[in-house]
Amino acid sequence: MMLYETWLMVVGVGIMFSYMFTFEGYLLFIERYLDFKPFTCVLCLTFWCCIIGYHFAGINTIYAIYSALIAELVYRKLVN
């Protein structure tokens, strides 16, 4: 049962980050203050935030790769 909860969280975090990049308030904040690589790329931001978050939550950090890939694929579907 723990594995299903982990995968549901991994998918949910990926979808959350992809929707964050379509939110206009986030984009305006990024253009003004944080206009450099980890914050302007959905794949990079999701990966680094998940590495930190999963490490502190006690979850295997390899799941950060899956969250980042899911975020990138969902973001591409949302934009196109």
Description of the structure:
The chain is 81% helix and 0% strand. It has 80 residues and is mostly helical. The longest helix is centred in the first third of the chain and has 19 residues. The mean pLDDT is 91.
List the SSEs and their pairings.
Elements lengths: L1 H19 L3 H9 L4 H4 L1 H16 L5 H17 L1
Helix pairs in contact: 1-4, 1-5, 4-5
Q: What's the order of the H and E elements?
A: HHHHH
Strand count: 0
* Mean of residue pLDDT values: 91
Envelope shape:
globular
Main β-sheet description: none
The end-to-end distance, rounded to whole angstroms, is 35 Å
Structural class by sheet pairing and helices: mainly alpha
Low-confidence parts = none
Number of helices: 5
